[in-house]
Amino acid sequence: MNLMSLFFMTRMANGYYALTNLGMSLLDLLPLVKLDGYWILSHGLGIANLRTKAFRAVFQLLRFPGARLAEATRPVNHRERSILLSYGLAAVLFTPCFWL
Asked: Residue 3 and residue 18: Cα distance in Å, rounded?
């Protein structure tokens, strides 16, 4: 093996490594699973325990379509309820696909 082929093999390996790291960083920014993107979104919206509240809101809605949310989990306003239901539905649909 000559020096040039070793150089190109090393360069190719570094390229794959960089591409893998970029892909992992992008996956880390997904807000629909509890990775960094989730914490960024939760903080940006100002809703603590966003995923838990959203899942609770979605499952409550699915179990009892006409029922109101329990007092402890009821959103304070229409904006928060919309956010919880939107995020909850997206996360419920996306999470199983992410782990396949």
From this structure: 22
Task: Categorize the per-residue pLDDT at 96 as very low, low, confident or very high, splitting at 50, 70 and 90.
Answer: confident
pTM (2 d.p.) = 0.74
- Is the CB of residue 38 less than 8 Å from the CB of residue 29? no
pLDDT for the residue 97: 87
CA distance 65 to 59: 10
Q: Following DSSP, what letter does each residue of the chain receive, concatenated?
A: --HHHHHHHHHHHHHHHHHHHHHHHHHHT-TTTTSHHHHHHHHHHT-TTHHHHHHHHHHHHHH-TTPPPPTTT--SSHHHHHHHHHHHHHHHHHHHHHT-
Task: Give the pLDDT score at 80.
Answer: 92
